[in-house]
Amino acid sequence: MKKLIYITILIIPFTILAAPNPDVTGPYATAREEYKLPAQVYKDVLDDRKTELWAAVYHPKTSRRSAMPLIIFLHGNHATCGHGSNPRIDNDCTYTYEGTCPEGYVVVPNHLGYDDVASKLASWGYLVVSINANLGINCGGGVAGDGGLNLARGRLILKHLELLSQWNKDGGSTEYIEYDLKGKINFSEVGLMGHSRGGEGIRGALFEYQNSRFWKKKIANNLDIKAMYEIAPVDGQTSEVLNADGIPWGTLLPMCDGDVSNLEGIKPFDRMVNKYSNKDSTFKSSILVWGTNHNFYNSEWQQSDSPGCTNHLPLWKKPQGDLLQKRIRTVALMGFFRGLVGSGANPKFLSQFDPLSEIDNTLARDTAVKRTFVPNVRENSFFTIENFENPTGTNTYGHQNNSQNISIAHQQKIFLHDFRSRSAALIEPQKIGGFLEIHFADQETGKNLSNFEYIDFDLVHKVFAKNPTDFSVSLLDNSGRESNQVKLSSVDIFDGTVGGPYSDYNQILRTFRFPINWFKDVDKSHLTALKIIFDSSELNSFYGSLIRATNNTSRYHISKRPNRSTRPRHRARKSRPFDFPKHYCRASFAGSEYVKRECFKKVKVTSDTLFKVQDSLPKIKAGGKLHGAFQRTKDGKTKEVTYLIPCRDASFSGSIEIYLNNGLEKVTCR
User: Which of 23, 26, 150, 524 could form a disulfide with 200 if both were Cys (CB 3.0 to 4.6 A apart)?
Assistant: First the structure.
């Protein structure tokens, strides 16, 4: 029986480090102009339909001597025609196919939904180009290998970059806008932002550019993408796995998203911080914003996609709530791009993405903003302490862990996360005083962590926890000494988990960072174990994943002084099951066609209720598989879609099942 050792818990005082506010207007007066070239079939974008080069350009009014850093914005999937006002009802896709809207409808200016942040960036000397993808792409039918047309969206970005590069080199922009762009664009300082399908679209642009000499030849200037940011992005709608390796990347996830309700934008984060890709010295970040929906991050999307939130309150139902949601977006984008893009980029603006620093207090006062963060996964700056991939009780390096008065199970899959890249342990404390001792190094030699700055944990509650979870952490060295114990609550409040509109819980991991110099009286050059002590009366079940030692890189250095986030003024609310609208639909075969020599069956589905134009991909089940390549009717109406099912999978048993809202809603058609 082990002798009990009583250790005094050291309470570490700290000073709040407020993140500087990037959301201020710069010194330049700005202008917005638009270019729109005649529609045509750009075969290097899509070879089966017309698309167009249409974008808003935001720039300083006065001509600058030096070339401007370039930021590209791309919106998500949405209807292209709408009617009415306050709100405008967007429920028609005629422009997608015809380039015009029906009588009584107007073209939806999807690209103007980020007007405020684009103008503010331009006031700091950036050239911002916000692309409109309405013709052929928005609301358009997918193709084989690109069901959501997100590779096509990526190629559309590159087509615009080709045009801008020509104007930058040879002139010609004044045929379409007043501002002469010749010599005005710095293609070595480029940032990309994508909302929803635009998020996977910007990763598609990076993929197409990096894997094709074609685009490198067509874009006259050498392109250097310095930053990529995604808002409520989709993932997995193409046949390619799209990441942003080697580039600073972030994502914003709305916790009440009623469209991309499975928050699949966290999956690229999982893939990029996987221990097998440990050569990336750039930081990856996600911020989880309570009370926000999918649509209102674009001010032109005027109807909410979400009926509500689970165990927290929707912002958009409060006075000025949608304006606060847009401000959250603006603060994130301004900080990200002002911190990373341009010769005057200032890394101090990046502090808001690190859980150690204070989030903008005007945001934290009205909602909760939680963060997941990895400063880099470079081999000498990132060490995995435990990833829970080995069988229960066995550490990543084959050593045996110790535990007492807890239930623990390794190799768990966390709902919403990428199962192939993330493994976790379900930890269920049984009694106060229980512990988990993780042995990550040989007992005789230990592991040298003296050059690391932080010990980082990724944690999430299994279900909603009424009260925060707390525990203590200590380190052990090869001489058997144990450090002081440091409380989790001295780093941040471990609360949640909350959920989206369908009575589900969004199990998205959050990062908790301990400065390693908080742990005293052990030899950090010969550490052998990390110990978690459950000394709090709140014994909630939670998942733990990827405990690691990290360093911030010098270029993207964030903060050294910790801060606890403010608890939101939300009260817990019991959720009620959401009743989906009833679809009465009919399905019929409509012949076959060949796409690139592959046979596809056409299945036409007609519903009495509109199939909403969403960013999540409606899928049909055939041959035991889900398929997402579909087309809408050419008259733009949204009550009829046609699916293309590979002939080898086109088998149905009496009825056809359609899966909407990322599979939450199943519609059975006869």
Answer: 150
